[in-house]
Amino acid sequence: MAQEVSQINVNGVEIPVVFEKDASLPITSVQLVVKNAGSMEDGANEGIAKFLAGMLGEGTKEMGATVFAEELEFRAISLGAHTGIETLVFEVSALKEQFPYALGMLQKLLKSPNFSKGSFDKIKLLTLGMLSNKESDFDYIANLNLQKLIFENTPFAHAYSGDVKSIKALKLKDVENFYKERINLESLIIVAGGDIELDELKKLLLPVLSEIKHGKHRDMAYFDANKNAKELVVHKESEQAYIYFGAPFYMKSGDPEAYKAKVASFILGESGFGSRLMEEVRVKRGLAYSSYSRSSIGKSSSSFTGHLQTKNENLEEAKKVVAAEIKRFVDEGVTEDELAQAKRFLLGSEPLRNETLSQRLSRAFFEYYSGFELGHSKKQLEKIEALSLEDLNSFIKKHDEITALSFSVVTKREKP
């Protein structure tokens, strides 16, 4: 059955429901997606959105974490919360016969999350332990510093899990206030599917959603990446140099030329051993085991980023090769053969990206969230199939902003 978008009215608010019925397995799932509640909303409390998601995994105040988890486990129910950059998501999945009970547990969680001192202290301890481990994760450090470079003075220029200072300073009241301010009916999108009728789903959801209060409608802010190329080098006792690079990519979610960006990005750095960067960095010069880049187009930001690892002594050469190849890509474009290979892969692998209910619902949600009609992805594939070499190369040449590369590096300090 195809996906559909309908509405459910809760206390006067029309909430969109993205739905697909699939009775191939006796399983039903639902996501409550809360817009403007992700890590970009952390503000002065860096890491608070992820911290909140951790606390929402601690059950209700009445039942506590252990009893709540045991009740779910006994019935093979999955219930939790997680955050992205833009959204916070409650997710429930259960066998069809247990689904009403699962939604009842979600209702209890929404009504009385376990915002106790014990739960708060536990999540704080776990978060600080995780952050302590990150101090020796050089990929994490290089990537975080790249975000700080290319998104300086924006909500993306911080660690989404926070840092030791911000987590230590976090108060339980801060988490409670974030929950009250961000979790509201006006910000909700429902994504659901499985072995259930839509009308039955809505009937089961009504008492659950009634636990959520009204709030303010918020428009999502948009931020471009920094066009001023910068470099930050951090010295660690590392056997390799970790190189992360990034630049602006001037394309917003909903752009009619997004399909061209997908093809161009695939050829430059997303296609593994067939990509330009892999060919130049690994195959021709043996500078790295792998090299990767991608273009990200979102509602809140867009950027071009990539990374590789190389020997410390090859650091400067690797950076020069990456910069030169990206410039050559913009100046000269791609070949007919590269375009043909990209089309074969992107069109041929489409069935694999559309196999499971979860994949199909994720795609349908992305289409709705981005402001497209359902079925937009299929139309994009048709445009990719018809894309000419001239049109693609004209598009690539137009986006020379990706040559304004900033570099974030973790490497070993040279001996004097």
Description of the structure:
This protein has 416 residues and is an alpha+beta fold. The chain has two domains: 4-209, Cytochrome Bc1 Complex, Chain A, domain 1 (2-Layer Sandwich), CATH 3.30.830.10; 223-411, Cytochrome Bc1 Complex, Chain A, domain 1, CATH 3.30.830.10. Helix content is 43%, strand content 21%. The protein has 15 helices and twelve strands. The protein has a six-stranded mixed sheet, sandwiched between helices. Helix 3 (99-111) packs parallel to helix 8 (198-209), helix 10 (276-284) packs antiparallel against helix 11 and helix 11 (315-332) packs across helix 15 (389-398). The protein starts with a strand and ends in a 5-residue tail after the last strand. 41% of the residues are buried.
